[in-house]
Amino acid sequence: MTLQELTRPWTAFNYGFLDESAKRELRRRILKAIAVPGYQVPYASREVPIARGWGTGGLQVTLTLLKPTSVVKVIDQGADDSVNASSIRKFVGRVGGAVETEDTQAATIIQSRHRIPEEKLREDQILVLQVPNPEPLRPVQPDMSVAREMHGDADYGQLWLILYEQLVRSGRIMQGSSYPSMVNGRHVMTPSPIPRWDVPKLNKAGHLTILSAGREKRIFAVPPYTSVEPLVFDDVPYRVEDHQDKTCYRSNATGYFMNELPQDDGSSLYELSDSHFGVKNIQKSEGETVAIGETWYKNGRMD
Amino acid sequence: MAYVATRGGERAIEQAERLFRDDIGTISRERIDAVRIGLPYLIDRLMGEASLYEPDLAALALAQAGGDLYEAVLLLRAYRTTQPRLAVAEPVAQTDLFTVRRISAAFKDIPGGQILGPTLDYSHRLLQVGVLKGEDFTPPPVEPAAEPAPATQPSLATWQKVQGLIKDYPAETVAPDEIPDLTREPLLFPASRAHKLQSLARADTGGTLALGYSTMRGYGSVHPTVNELRLAEAPVRLRHPRGTIFSAGRVRVSQTEVISKARELELGFSATFGWNEVKVIAAATLDLASNQPNPHPASNEEFVLYHTEPVESSGFCIHFKLPHYVTFQSSLDALRRVKADKQPSTSAPAAAEKLQPKKEEVAL
After folding, report:
1. Which of B18, B169, B283, B314 has a C-alpha 20 to 30 A away from that of B123?
2. Which residues in chain A have Cβ-Cβ distances shorter than 8 Å to B323?
3. Is position B67 within any domain?
4. pTM (predicted TM-score)
């Protein structure tokens, strides 16, 4: 036996960029996160070749889950072709040889910044959400050590207080995105800055969602078929954005989350925020045969 | 695919990167060498923040980033993290350091003597504008002392401990593999001593200075005195599998002890790769100020360590350039609803909000 036989030829980087010890750590943290839904597991969070705050947490998870048969979709604010999404997708393809896709139905791993696709995800798909701030308690407790104790005690009263203050001041709950949500009846998590429209998609979903904050070094998960309930008062129902009646000016699809496009005359046009879902709807309207999956929302409502 | 084509970012993205690289031009071995030889203190600062001691790689990172220091730190860190951790070097005590500069502000003279070494501290900061007109600036040669200073120096703190001036905390023996490693574990609080010093060692120089300066100016109860500051070369000694210890070379390091004059004498400490005096003085002050009762943010270790991390802070700062239209849309929705709620149900026009007129400055 020679040394040559025991080693592999030199390469510029490992498969999936991260070295095996980093991946092993991350797999263990992911398993723990799945075992305790909504609980923030600290992890080392290695540097990756994109800047912190640009999806390094999500990228580390995607790189760890990656295998040559993976089909990866990356979206940013709903769009596949956004600057950062295409950069991340290219990187994953470059270091992992994975198939890149824009089709939600075809993907095995979907890394997303701040949106959940409109088509329902399946049990064999994993959603990886990029998280800027993993701590729902940050507005009431900026000290992470103290916040950790509050999670331990399920001490969430102050979160309801914030919502109550919003009701008193504005007559409405003003929380936009990142709506704090109770997971499995135990841990409050931030669902990441997805719009309120997307939060109900996590509740009792068939797919696994992994939420990863690279800069803050925290990972948490919503396992399949786990309850995710936005914090609400019994007499003030949860309200998603008023997009149920909006129609996409390109595809004529109605009842999904839209991007508002301000026009020169002061009015607004709307287009589907989920860009590839939009592409499919345009193709369909042009008479092409396209497979559009079942959607979470039907006619702008989710039951 | 009209939908995507009109968004069409990919080509623009590629060309944007090319524009940046076009400004910098070809990166050659000569350029790397020029950066490394001409800018050793910048290389040192970079290696400290990257926690990777390799002057050639640091010079390459600087050249590739066109001198954007945060980009260069990220390049090096992202490279470093993929490299295996092969061995743990033997600990280096102060008395092992091949010291080229060593000063104490606490005493006029100290055992082993004050050694000024290389510094601009006492120089006149005048630009040598002649160079731009073609007159090379060649510094006058160094005149060696009749008797060279010894390569190693005793530790001032040891003398102070013998005098009973400062507490001599018992040293804990930790097996090499058990030494906490911040690059392989998350930072949790309260931070271990090892994690804290590692975190300060690779902290952002500017950030460390800003927070350290705030405690020096009076936010906090620390009035530091530089007990001992060293610029040195530290021997890197490794244990061969057969058991013998051998030298694998030297790395430039700087370290500072600051001492408090409040109530009892206490030391704050910081060390980093490369020669970077501002950083180690500021970081040692932050170490000393850490977790004082009724603290200012700069004396709270969680506040300090989180906010001086160069890769995380710079990355998060520039991420605000990313599109945020979904999150913005979500907030807009709530704001519009509230506005709609406030519209009176009667047809009477809503009382116009009194707007303060904007003051405009007029150039006369």
Report:
1. B283
2. 76-77, 82-83
3. yes
4. 0.85
